[in-house]
Design brief:
Rossmann fold, 2 domains, five-stranded parallel beta sheet, 10 helices, binds xanthosine-5'-monophosphate, EC 6.3.5.2
């Protein structure tokens, strides 16, 4: 496709021109956007780029391993993995407000990036150039919905990392900010990234932190990780991965309802399934999933995930609902 080839060529040239001989870091989130942004920048500046994978403890089951394995295998990129679970969960303790969560997560991301940047410079020794640039996989819809577009209210602090602090020490490189998701996938294909990466469903930078309604704790994250893994497993087994845009699983952590299991009363949490179909995430419709698939997901989650005794289906389109609950 000549259009995508020229998009790649032009943006590679622009990145080279801007970064010169300096260094950049790129946070990898496991999602397609950051992967494509990283691959594009790597093409432009090679190993002046270091990717940083921040394991913030808000990832889904198996996600960290996948990023570490698949992406490095596909691109040969330099990758630093930072275990930052305690830092993030500590910062999020006691916080329930969605925008506050996003801002905290964004801020902690930047702190980790700053620390990683100074370590990269220290390692490079006296000939090391400073790390001046932060690469982000921000897309056009993210720009619009964060209020950066024309005439649109701020819906969510939507940066790839969930909202940036004001005293940012990096210059941002956002090579995808004019593209929609389908175009990003085409760029990824053009760059030779494997199918598993190019067709991965969207996953938000703030991770499961914005899928727990209420305070984010390790216990709640573990619950949600189990429920989410079951839903993903069943959707994949049913061959629905390419049909649905994504299916957030949301834990209503502050809500309890009465149930009965075996001969005992339970008083557990509901989880919400939020399967959507969409072209660009700006609008979405709820997916009409087959009842038998929904039934399997529901049965397995309530049987296998302790403390979850109810599964509900979100049948709201966007608008008026957003895809994520926070
Ligand atoms: P909403 O909830 O605004 O989501 O309808 C639209 C799409 O964006 C994803 N999303 C994010 N992606 N950082 C991201 O990289 C974020 O902070 C973020 N918030 C939402 C969401 O999963 C959906 O695909």
């Amino acid at each position: 496709d000549w259009t995508m080839a020229s998009v790649v060529e032009e943006s590679v040239a622009a990145i080279r021109e801007r970064v010169g001989s300096r260094r950049a870091i790129c946070g990898l989130s496991g999602g397609v956007d950051s992967a494509v942004a990283a691959a594009l920048v790597q093409k432009a500046i090679g190993d002046q780029l270091t990717c940083v994978y921040v394991d913030h403890g808000l990832m889904r089951k198996g996600e960290s391993e996948q990023v570490e394995k698949d992406f490095v295998a596909a691109t040969g990129v330099k990758l630093t993995v930072v275990d930052a679970e305690e830092r993030f969960l500590g910062a999020l303790a006691g916080v329930s407000d969605p925008e506050q969560k996003r801002k905290i997560i964004g801020r902690e991301f930047i702190r980790v990036f700053e620390q990683a940047a100074s370590e990269i410079v220290a390692e490079a020794g006296e000939h090391g150039e400073s790390v001046d640039f932060l690469v982000q996989g921000t897309l056009y819809p993210d720009v619009v919905e964060s209020g950066g577009g024309t005439g649109t209210a701020n819906i969510k602090s939507h940066h790839n990392v969930g909202g940036l602090p004001e005293d940012l020490q990096f210059q941002l490189v956002e090579p995808l900010r004019r593209l929609f998701k389908d175009e990003v996938r085409m760029v990824g294909q053009e760059l030779g990234l494997p199918e598993e990466i190019v067709h991965r469903q969207p996953f938000p930078g703030p991770g499961l932190g914005i899928r727990i309604i209420g305070e984010v704790t390790k216990e709640r994250l573990d619950l949600l990780r189990e429920a989410d893994a079951i839903a993903r497993e069943e959707l994949t087994a049913a061959g629905l991965d390419r049909e649905i845009w994504q299916c957030p699983v949301v834990l209503l952590a502050d809500v309890r309802s009465v149930g009965v299991q075996g001969d005992g009363r339970t008083y557990g949490h509901p989880v919400v399934l939020r399967p959507v179909s969409s072209e660009d995430a700006m609008t979405a419709d709820w997916s009409r999933l087959p009842y038998d698939v929904l039934a399997r997901i529901s049965t397995r989650i309530t049987n296998e995930v302790e403390d979850v005794n109810r599964v509900v289906l979100d049948v709201t389109s966007k608008p008026p609902g957003t895809i994520e609950w926070e």
